[in-house]
Amino acid sequence: MPAILTIRDLRKTYAGGFEALKGVSLEIERGEILALLGPNGAGKTTLISTVCGITTATSGHVTVDGHDIVTDFRAARALIGLVPQEVALEPFEKVRNTVRFSRGLFGKPRDDARVEEVLRRLSLWDKRDAQIKELSGGMKRRVMIAKAMVHEPRILFLDEPTAGVDVELRKDMWEIVAEMKAAGVTIILTTHYIEEAEAIADRVGVIDRGELLLVEEKDTLMKRMGRKQLIVELTAPIEAIPEALARHRLTLAPDGRHLVYTYDTHAERTGITALMNDVAAAGLVLCDVQTRQSSLEEIFVDLVGRKAS
Ligand SMILES: Nc1ncnc2c1ncn2[C@@H]1O[C@H](COP(=O)(O)OP(=O)(O)OP(=O)(O)O)[C@@H](O)[C@H]1O
Prior knowledge:
Blueprint: E1 5-13, E2 19-28, E3 33-37, H1 44-51, E4 59-64, E5 67-68, H2 73-78, E6 80-83, H3 95-105, H4 112-121, H5 137-149, E7 155-159, H6 167-182, E8 186-190, H7 194-200, E9 203-208, E10 211-217, H8 218-225, E11 227-234, E12 251-252, E13 258-264, H9 272-281, E14 286-293, H10 296-308
Parallel strand pairs: 3-8, 3-9, 6-7, 7-8
Antiparallel strand pairs: 1-2, 1-4, 4-5, 9-10, 11-13, 11-14, 12-13
Helix pairs in contact: 3-5
The structure holds adenosine-5'-triphosphate (ATP).
């Protein structure tokens, strides 16, 4: 089946001449969750805004389920739900009307049952007749999500959905994301919480300074880029690493009881056997051994840092 979203050589130069997207190409499959990671100013919001038709691309092409976002804007836009970073709501409007109106904007017929379902799902039903200005900040965020979901989009964009929200909304948000994915909706989110991307994404894209550095299956990425650490626990603390172990470039934890060895899982030789032999020959006695895979965060920092240097 063709990709639901195809982005080809997308470029965006803002009026002042700043190049925010430098030729981004990306294909997104139906029903996947893609997390876009990148430091501040990397171009994540510009990318999402361009695909959603809020910002006009300088050049390049985007199709949503085969509909070009410029020449076939209405059809493309109707398939998209967007939860932007900033809350933008009409303060005197009532919650239910705001959400109902949003559905109408995408050419969908009025459906009060759908509006009720969405409001209930977001714990907003009790507030359905409240004016927006009477809501708390978290409730306003919930209205933004309701507005993005009510027209039954096939692709949902979440631009830093959990920045500054409380634990409850965060939990609700991820439950909704899981439910929508189960219903076949494609989800693209930007986040600064790398552990979140690690927990829910199928694929991860890393963007920096307007360029997509990579897009990969999360598990493959973590295996390919990841290093592992072997942590050797000694029965008795030592003051310093014995000379006989110098070649292994170990670090000794401050408690003197844990030796940490970092290795590349894909190297032809990890060096573990030699290390263990030398540890035994040095007269050290082990009581435990553990390994730890490097996190997505370490990979991310490594990638972005390497490019900057
Ligand atoms: N309207 C604009 N005019 C000029 N430059 C802009 C405009 N909007 C964004 N930029 C610049 O484009 C770059 C990318 O911004 P963008 O908001 O896409 O980044 P981001 O990855 O979403 O960042 P953050 O994580 O901070 O939200 C930044 O350098 C920003 O200053």
